Amino acid sequence: MPRARIGLWLSLTLRSTRSLCRAGFMEGQPQGPPNPAGMENGTEPCGEERASEAQETTVTEGAAKIAFPSANEVFYNPVQEFNRDLTCAVITEFARIQLGAKGIQIKVPGEKDVQKVVVDLSEQEEEKAELKKGANLAPGDQPRTAAVGEICEEGLRVLEGLAASGLRSIRFAREVPGLQSVVANDASARAVDLMCRNVQLNAVAHLVHPRQADARMLMYQHQRASERFDVIDLDPYGSPAPFLDAAVQAVSEGGEATLTWAQSRARGFRRILTAQAFLAGLLCVTCTDMAVLAGNSGETCYSKYGAMALKSRACHEMALRIVLHSLDLRANCYQRFVVPLLSVSADFYVRVFVRVFTGQAKVKASASKQALVFQCVGCGTFHLQRLGKASGASGGRVKFSAACGPPIGPECEHCGQRHQLGGPLWAEPIHDLDFVGRVLQAVSTNPGRFHTSERIQGVLSVITEELPDVPLYYTLDQLSSTIRCSTPSLLQLRSALLHAGFRVSLSHACKNAVKTDAPSSALWDIMRCWEKECPVKRERLSEASPAFRILSVEPRHMLIQVRSRIFPLPLPFCPCPGLAPSLPSWTTAVGSPRPASGPQPLPTAATVHR
Ligand SMILES: C[S@@+](CC[C@H](N)C(=O)[O-])C[C@H]1O[C@@H](n2cnc3c(N)ncnc32)[C@H](O)[C@@H]1O
Ligand SMILES: [Zn+2]
């Protein structure tokens, strides 16, 4: 697949999305109720001839070529190419799983013609025997195939609710196999006009159906189980909050697929259950209102997402968890719940990919998946408090009750200051590591497919190594600036934590961040030991300061050595300044769970661009 080419030079690269959006042809278009003039709900507006623009700019991204009106009307955002590439990669793997369950093998451009089979080592012998049987499949049992650009009758029905020029939808049609249809919707008549022309330009009119409607109305009209979409993509300016209620109702439940064990194996699944478990719709949501989600206006965040955001060094992961909380809460109203597949913080936005399931019984578990955050205003130490408690009862049942708390006293045990209360936020894993491994493997073995493949590999590699059961993180500069000392290296801090017997990982959401299951008391002990090697002048500290309070206590664990005993790094750190490296494999040696079938570490250190 060719690298993205920009047909005419655009003076865009240095402009933020926000300014791009404002400068765009949507200027003045609110995300609330759009102007109904000329807009019927869900009309297909491509029938008429429309006057072509006098001057146009053409942009090529992925396999799509998009014409934009030029002059001052600038609304192609190249920074979001990573978002679109990643979405194509995710929907492709989703299609591989969904269609595989129906016996359809997808054909991905650039991939070898053999359906990938991910096999647990423990299952290899069993599999050899089954593959022998599978070799004699009846002709009717041979997998059917689905290629890009073709209508697959049993394929995915996709909705892009806020499609602007149609670039994303057209890329789906030209790059993702196994689609039945793509509805490319926008409230703006001008956007839909342009979309129609781009659909023609890319010869995808058989797959991509432009619509002019308020995305909410369109989704509310698709609540019936038979009319739901298998994939809904929401990529608004700012917050997606107004669209979430409709979206969680319009995403499909999926059908039932009954495969024999051998069929399941022959089609690339380890277990029949794996295929069935994926039979639920996929919701892909972008949020660019990071100021709100990062705690600049906690009350605004509450009004949009039902959660208080805090100003925190861990704000990027907090943002992801607030969005996941919000999605789950809205789904719960309709006896549905979300299961995150992949949650990414990148550039100026967060992007989540969740499956939506229905199940009244399982919705009862939702309270116990959310947590409040207590964060000290002095030293930044945080504690999570689950909202509900799920415990085992007799007969294998689960009993739900209110959680007990709070987990902390009125004053911080380390610095004596008060706590701020944030959340509720999603406290369960934010990725499905098996699924992330599939996407990573597909992109790694076919890197020519996307312009941003290297970045996708870097981000997903770090994600596969993130401690899945440890929400949030501390940053190096937060720890050192709190006690006013010099900053240890990431390697030194991680070595100290590992020596002390704790698990540790990086976070894709923030460079110099450390996720660890160590209690905050151990972290501060490590920092006290570090300070002994690079002493802070006590006379410069106010007695009421967090630094003074923390350093007045002797470390309880004097064995923690920050400098002298450093764990070796088998992989070199990324030489690019400012970029975090792929997490070396040694960090998992002390118990960080790796995905059972996850990818092996990449041969070279992958880079993460934030
Ligand atoms: C950020 S742009 C979408 C970019 C596009 N997804 C892409 O990847 O190129 C947001 C779009 O949402 C549209 N929009 C705003 N409010 C809407 C609504 N209530 N219903 C449908 N579209 C809406 C705007 O007209 C604008 O074109
Ligand atoms: Zn404190």
From TrEMBL:
Residues 26-53, 589-610 are annotated as: Disordered. Coiled coil: none annotated. One of its GO terms (biological process) is tRNA N2-guanine methylation. It catalyses: guanosine(26) in tRNA + 2 S-adenosyl-L-methionine = N(2)-dimethylguanosine(26) in tRNA + 2 S-adenosyl-L-homocysteine + 2 H(+). GO terms for cellular component: nucleus. Gene3D superfamilies: N2,N2-dimethylguanosine tRNA methyltransferase, C-terminal domain, Vaccinia Virus protein VP39. This is tRNA (guanine(26)-N(2))-dimethyltransferase.
